TrEMBL record:
Its EC number is 2.1.1.222, 2.1.1.64. S-adenosyl-L-methionine binds at R45, G76, D97, L137. This is Ubiquinone biosynthesis O-methyltransferase. Pfam families: Methyltransf_23. It comes from Sphingomonas aerolata. It is an enzyme of class 2 (transferase).
Amino acid sequence: MILASDRNESATIDPREAAHFGTMAADWWNPKGSSAPLHQLNPPRLRYIRDRVDTHWHGDGTGFTPLAGRTALDVGCGAGLLCEPLARLGASVTGIDAAPENIAAAEIHAAQSGLAIDYRAGGVEGLDGQFDLVTSLEVIEHVSDPAGFVRGLARVLADNGLLILSTPNRTPLSRLAMITIAEGTGRIPRGTHDWNKFLTPEELTALLRDAGLHVVHTQGLGFSPATGFALSDSTSLDYFLTAVKA
């Protein structure tokens, strides 16, 4: 493995963020615990990923393993909530996370689930190799250097690969929903988000462009008390971006 110091790249891990999420490791797989919103996010996340995978690699949407024969990397994987479904979709999966506690929890759960997933503690700048699918969902708003983080993602993306990101938009709605309501009522742990670090779609698109990537699809992620999280035409709360090498 090549370390950040060998690449002359800046480290993107924020130690305070890593410590915050590390404290949630033991509860990560509890659908009613502190990570409950992540469990609720997974179905629309997977719908989006499956749609983009089928579009990019010309799948018909009916097979159970559309990622068979492909490699996938989830950056900021937590305890593996996305890695495990990607493995079941057929991919050879690597998951990396800044918090060693999360990696330990991920390894235990994968073993209990009978899944072979390569988990590693660290940041993207310390990773070698290239991957067909690179995902990083609700992560970039927690790193210390978003531009360096995106460059790291671009570096490990294969030439015909697909990069999928999601992140909150920096809008009055996201401040109200994610800070005032979600954190204020304890739905998610206080201090999870810094609204000032949220990126607009235009800002994230510019970072991707500067890293040699081209955005091919954007879709919003919305929430309602009646239906929960769902894909949306509006990006005012949260959104997905899909990019390929330019």
